């Protein structure tokens, strides 16, 4: 599959929702459409998980999540899943933040494209990432010493064996 063509297709699909608010979080991406996709998907997750947080059920009860928000969240999730699959092993390979990976999996268990979705009982509030990237380069490593100041560096694979990969910083 041609990666650039796939990215272009996803960019055109998500363009009606385009939002550049989170572009700075994806400075490691040097492909403009892909950077825009990450920013737009990040925006869709912030917007729709914030709306979901407003609708959370209490105790044993379920709650209704609107159809439009459900569709937008599913579009964001499906876009990222497709990109993750296609870009794996390429220079654009990325991983989802571990917290958001868990949230996405839980969301997929109840989101529906039509008629809205039923938020399950005991669904916890989703932490919204405004200043933290949801998607990180597969070869990024957190090199910070302090919890308050995170710094990421791109690593280059220089060797690989049966038990480990060796990276150059």
Question: What tags apply to this protein structure?
Answer:
169 residues, alpha+beta, 2 domains, two-stranded antiparallel ribbon, 4 helices, 8 strands, 40% helix
Would you mind describing this structure in some detail?
By secondary structure, the chain is α+β, with helices and mostly antiparallel strands. It is about 40% helix and about 15% strand. It has a two-stranded antiparallel sheet with strand order 1-3. A two-stranded antiparallel sheet has the order 2-4. α1 crosses α2. The two termini are about 30 Å apart. The mean pLDDT is about 90.
The tally of helices reads 4
Number of domains: 2
Overall pLDDT? 90
Helix and strand pattern: HHEHEHEEEEEE
Low-confidence stretches: none
The overall strand count is 8
User: Helix- and strand-based class?
Assistant: alpha+beta
Break the fold down into its secondary structure elements and pairings.
Blueprint: H1 3-14, H2 32-54, E1 63-65, H3 67-87, E2 94-96, H4 98-108, E3 117-119, E4 135-137, E5 140-142, E6 152-154, E7 156-160, E8 165-168
Antiparallel strand pairs: 1-3, 2-4, 5-6, 7-8
Helix pairs in contact: 1-2, 1-3, 2-3
